[in-house]
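W.,

You were right to be curious about this one. When I first looked at the sequence I had no strong expectations either way, so I just let the prediction run and decided to look at it fresh. Below is the sequence, 194 residues in total, followed by the output.
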Amino acid sequence: MPQYERFEASGSTDFAAYASAAWTRLLRTAVLLTGDHHEAEDLVQTTLAKVYARWGRIPPDDVDLYVRRSLVNNNLSRIRRRRVTHLLMPFLPERVHQPDNGHAESVERRAAVTQALATLSARQRTVLVLRYWEDLPETAIAEVLDCSLGTVKTHARRGLAALRAHPAFAAFAASPATPASPASDRSHPVTGAS
């Protein structure tokens, strides 16, 4: 067996191990980016397929950055394609996936967050998901989005302001879980939960 074939087989094994280890994390991020579980699965699958094609050329230290950047870019491309489709279609198709009725309050909060995130621009939503869900520092987000640190801070500030002003959070604003002075602790930026 030639040496390059052994390298390819080893690379395939490395990729399979990486993909299976990162799948749930990428899927959770994609769900927040897309707002739909099925579209998120498609997004992660597409991203991993594109990453696999370039796996041998990605530096091992930059794999997570490369995959995150690919996920974000594929989501932005998906939004652009969807926008064109919506403009060309005379009516919108019904959504196939309906949320299940489970723990009422957590489902309500999740629905409120999803609804509010859907109203943000794609860049603001991406910054907020990477910052508060993936817990990335602003410098890493700037690197993923290939923009300046100030742009990331602006998107985060405007996105949080839009989420706080969103009517879906009016019911949670008066809840007892919301602290009296959110600036004094490390509470969640939207819901106020610790």
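Here's what jumped out at me. The CA atoms of residues 19 and 48 lie 7 Å apart. And, maybe more interesting for your project: The two ends are 57 Å apart (CA to CA).

Coffee later to discuss?

I.
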